[in-house]
Protein: MioC protein
Amino acid sequence: MKIAVLYGTETGNAAMLADDIKSALDGDHDVACADLAAIDPAGLDGQDFHVIVCSTYGDGDVPASAKPFMTKLEALAPKLSHVRFAIFGLGDSEYAETFAHGSMKLAEALVAREAVQVGTRLTHNATADELPEDIALPWIRAILADLEDAV
Ligand SMILES: Cc1cc2nc3c(=O)[nH]c(=O)nc-3n(C[C@H](O)[C@H](O)[C@H](O)COP(=O)(O)O)c2cc1C
Structure:
């Protein structure tokens, strides 16, 4: 499968996790990895399965590197029905009111433009003991196995 791992980050955690996901899937799949800062939502490729990793900053907002993507996405007409994506959120439950809202808002904005969300959004809590990759790698492997079974 052709997979585009895209990350939105402010201090690098989402970039590291995206890299871990790329490394785990390389070999079985054709995987590219990029910062959302370099991506125009209008150019998303229907041949790719998109795996998005996104943290949360400010008042439950997307992080700095995802902001231009989000702004362009919000200005886009709902015509992303060719885009399939799964999304994983990074956050911190110390921010109880806005825990992992960046990934939630990004998923909502994509779905509002008819992109198809595959699987459920999982999150990592920076306050918890667990490593993000220990949650994200089984999550993405299960999603890809389901997609391959469906073909
Ligand atoms: C100034 C600041 C604001 C944050 N705001 C939130 C927030 O509103 N909700 C949340 O769940 N996490 C929040 N976080 C936690 C980050 O999302 C979390 O540490 C994440 O792992 C950072 O990933 P990144 O390095 O990829 O940006 C905040 C962190 C900082 C430093």
In short: The beta strands are 2-8, 30-35, 49-54, 84-91, 116-117, 122-125. Helices lie at 13-25, 67-74, 101-112, 132-150. The chain has one domain: 2-150.
